[in-house]
Amino acid sequence: MPTYTGINHLAMATGDMDATIRFWRDLLGMRLVLGLGHPGYRHYFFEISASDMIAFFEWPGVEPLEEKDHGVPARGPYAFDHVSFGVAGEADLWELKDRLEAAGVWVSEEVDHGFIHSIYCFDPNGIAIEFSAPRAEADVRAHPTMADTHPTSVTLEGPAPQPGHWPAPTPTPAEDRTAYPGEGEVVLARLGKPWK
Prior knowledge:
The chain has 196 residues and is α/β, with parallel strands linked by helices. The chain has helices spanning 17-27, 90-102, 184-190; strands at residues 9-14, 32-38, 41-47, 53-58, 83-86, 111-112, 116-122, 128-134.
């Protein structure tokens, strides 16, 4: 199995990159670490942690999402509900709550989920956001827990990956392992140079 290191980046969309930068960089404090773009297209990356980022495409005509409360069931084609950012502890939740409220951004009360405490808000694009602080006494990574009262038979197989349900892969030969030329050369040419 591959070794996962976190979420390299979540890719979202915006019609207003400036408002997005003001919220994610200036209000939430996530550094803007990469900006790609040309007329009609931007792709900007904000640092969440040493291994995780959130990115936004700016495309003409993109409108904010209609706000949907976090976790409320939906019907029809649907894939994304909300994103949760981990914070170190309770004090961080309260600092974020205070910052958001001072900026006039709606933010929920703190909610106890047993393994985490969370607060919720929306960004200027209507993206539903959760901030979660871990509870040391309920580490579900160390102690996986199934609290579903009606789990499926597949669920009951356990928390670890179950072999034999997918065909075995055929490794791609080393000589065939190439990368499609995206914007890599542009980024490498600018890396370490002055911001402007």
